[in-house]
Amino acid sequence: MARVAVTGGSGKLGRAAVRDLVEHGWDVVNLDRAPSPDNLAPFLSIDLTDYGQVVGALTGVDDRYDRIDAVVHLAAIPAPGLQANSAIFRNNILSTYNVFAAAKVAGIDNIVWASSETVLGLPFETPPPYLPVDEEYAPRPESTYSLVKTLEETMVGELCRWNPRLKATGLRFSNVMYVEDYAAFPAFESDPTLRDWNLWSYIDARDGALAIRLGLEREGTGKEVFVIASPDTVMSTPTPELVKAHYPDLELKRPVEGHETLLSIDKARRLLGYDPRHTWRDHV
Ligand SMILES: NC(=O)c1ccc[n+]([C@@H]2O[C@H](COP(=O)([O-])OP(=O)(O)OC[C@H]3O[C@@H](n4cnc5c(N)ncnc54)[C@H](O)[C@@H]3O)[C@@H](O)[C@H]2O)c1
Question: Of all protein residues, whose CA lies closest to atom 26 belonging to ligand 1?
């Protein structure tokens, strides 16, 4: 059984990822500062900003495990504004550097890491270049949190150049949701500006976990980044109407229909076989 270390496995997305990976036959180790309430995988308490601890965790821990085959790196302060900018910068960039550098020492060539929809230019005070937004234009970070996600994407590209065996899959997740979050969705309809900051998108945590597993299974080497969102918006208003009302002057790269997301998941569908199954509409 292949063993995967999930950093941030106690967090919102991490708990869904650990569950999905365990259910699909991966041997999972959860590396986090805090334990998970789920207890689905062995937990190792760690501070990822301490390089020595990360090398230790990825190369083997006494009688717990002797090797790790792949890493899912999700641990981070997960949004702008939760801590001082410099604290977000320090925690997030150092954790990501340490995970990739320690993985090299441990001989691990398969890493999936969490980037973010924010690199697409959220909250879109400057409108995006076109719709649906995708991976084809350069990142436009508008916060320190997003700046770090952008720097990480650049850094990983260079690390792949240094190590041609490395396969690094960056997932630009939309806003992560659990089923219990969906009760709040109908209220968005009365005020579309409540959610226009990310083009009314979201990602069901279970489909986020699916994308992570598909990223681990992806063929090939090198860096690839993917936008990962649920297939629909948070709105009842059809997407063409939202575009017409809020972005009448923006180029449409391709026609949109129904309630489809304006965060293009076409690349993930094409290259990962990502086929999200969950929508808030089944739960409200
Ligand atoms: N939640 C979202 O809407 C969202 C959207 C896009 C991207 N992301 C990204 O997805 C990832 C997971 O987000 P989440 O919502 O599950 O966050 P979360 O805060 O629920 O979980 C993050 C986990 O990382 C751990 N952690 C943070 N820094 C650590 C450190 N230095 N050492 C050890 N553990 C540390 C925390 O203890 C926590 O359990 C993050 O990288 C985040 O930036 C999240």
Answer: 75
**224 CA to centre of own chain:** 13
On average, the pLDDT of the chain sits at 98
- What pLDDT is stored for residue 1 in this prediction? 82
Q: Which domains does the chain have, with CATH numbers?
A: 3-179+203-233+263-278 (3.40.50.720)
Please tell me the distance between residue 52's alpha carbon and the centre of ligand 1 in angstroms: 21
Does the Cβ of 32 fall within 6 Å of ligand 1? yes
Mean pLDDT across 183-201:
97
Cα-to-centroid distance, 114 and ligand 1 (Å): 9
pLDDT tens profile 37-80: 998 999 999 999 999 999 999 999 999 999 999 999 999 999 99
Distance from Cα 162 to the centre of ligand 1, integer Å = 27
The neighbour count for residue 23, using CB atoms within 10 Å, is 11
